[in-house]
UniProtKB/TrEMBL annotation:
<dbReference type="InterPro" id="IPR035996">
    <property type="entry name" value="4pyrrol_Methylase_sf"/>
</dbReference>
<dbReference type="GO" id="GO:0019354">
    <property type="term" value="P:siroheme biosynthetic process"/>
</dbReference>
<dbReference type="InterPro" id="IPR014776">
    <property type="entry name" value="4pyrrole_Mease_sub2"/>
</dbReference>
<feature type="domain" description="Tetrapyrrole methylase">
    <location>
        <begin position="10"/>
        <end position="218"/>
    </location>
</feature>
<protein>
    <recommendedName>
        <fullName>uroporphyrinogen-III C-methyltransferase</fullName>
        <ecNumber>2.1.1.107</ecNumber>
    </recommendedName>
</protein>
<keyword id="KW-0949">S-adenosyl-L-methionine</keyword>
<dbReference type="InterPro" id="IPR006366">
    <property type="entry name" value="CobA/CysG_C"/>
</dbReference>
<dbReference type="InterPro" id="IPR014777">
    <property type="entry name" value="4pyrrole_Mease_sub1"/>
</dbReference>
<keyword id="KW-0489">Methyltransferase</keyword>
<dbReference type="InterPro" id="IPR000878">
    <property type="entry name" value="4pyrrol_Mease"/>
</dbReference>
<dbReference type="Pfam" id="PF00590">
    <property type="entry name" value="TP_methylase"/>
</dbReference>
<dbReference type="GO" id="GO:0004851">
    <property type="term" value="F:uroporphyrin-III C-methyltransferase activity"/>
</dbReference>
<keyword id="KW-0808">Transferase</keyword>
<dbReference type="GO" id="GO:0032259">
    <property type="term" value="P:methylation"/>
</dbReference>
<dbReference type="InterPro" id="IPR050161">
    <property type="entry name" value="Siro_Cobalamin_biosynth"/>
</dbReference>
<keyword id="KW-0627">Porphyrin biosynthesis</keyword>
Amino acid sequence: MADAATAPGRVTLVGGGPGSEELLTVGAVEALITADVVLYDRLAPHTRLASLAPDAVLIDVGKTPGHHPVSQTGIEELIVEHALAGSDVVRLKGGDVYVFGRGSEEVLACHRAGIPVTVISGVSSAIAVPAAAGIPLTHRGVSRMFTVVSGHAPLSDDELLHLAGLGSTIVVLMGVNTLPHFSAGLLRQGMSPEMPVAVIERGFSPDQRTTIADLGSIVSVAIRSGVSSPAVLVVGEVVRLAHTGDLTAAEMMARAGRLSVLG
Ligand SMILES: C[S@@+](CC[C@H](N)C(=O)[O-])C[C@H]1O[C@@H](n2cnc3c(N)ncnc32)[C@H](O)[C@@H]1O
C-alpha cells in the first residue's frame, strides 16, 4: 500500500486479442510501452512482453480451466495494490476485456479504490478465431446475425430452445467440456442433425486445428480427435463456407462423410 504522500497511479485494462501480436491494437501497444506493471492472462499475447513492456514488472495471473493460481479477487487486489503504490498498471486480458473476461469486475474494483481506470477494447476470439479458420459469422442470404454464448456452464432448456430457433450462427466460448450437453440440447430442441459445427482449437498458434462435423456426430468426432480447450465452437450454415486450401468445408465434409478434420 502507498503511504499518504504517494499519488495513486492509473490502471488500463487492455484487450490483448486472441493470442497473436498482430491483433494487438495501437492503443494496446502504447499502453504497454509506458507500463510499470503488467498483469497478464494465459490467452493474451505474452511471449514477447519483455520487449513490448520494457520497463514493466510482469506478473502472470493466468488461469487454466479448473486451476486458478491467483483468484479473481487476488487479481483485483494486485491491480489496486500496485496502482495505489503509484504505478502505471496494465491489466492485459485475452480477447476483449468485456467478453466473458470479468473486465467489469476489475473496473469496479478500481472505482471502489478511487483509482482512474481506462478500458482499451481488444479483438475477441469469438470473431477472430473463426475468421482464422476461414469461417465468416455472417454471409448475405445465409446468416444475418450471430449469438455469442458462454459454454462454461450447461445452458438451460429455455436457452437451448431460444438458440435452436434463431436460425443463425451460434458461437460458443469455453464450450469444449459442455459440448455433449450443448449438442444434445440443440438436437432435442429441434435443430437439424445435419447442421454443420466447427471446433477451432488454439487459434493463432502454430498448432491451430479445425474440426468440422455435423451436429449429429460432432461429439463422437471431437472425442476421436481429442479436441481440447481453448477452442471456439461455431454452429451454423456459415461453417459450410469455410475455406481451407482449395477446398471448402462442404467439399471436405462430402469427401470424408460425416467427419472432416482440417489443418
Ligand atoms: C474466459 S474466455 C475469454 C474470452 C475473451 N475475453 C475474448 O474476447 O476472446 C476464454 C475462452 O475464449 C476462447 N479463446 C480465447 N482465445 C482463444 C484462442 N486463441 N483459440 C481458441 N479459443 C480461444 C476459448 O473458448 C476460451 O475458453
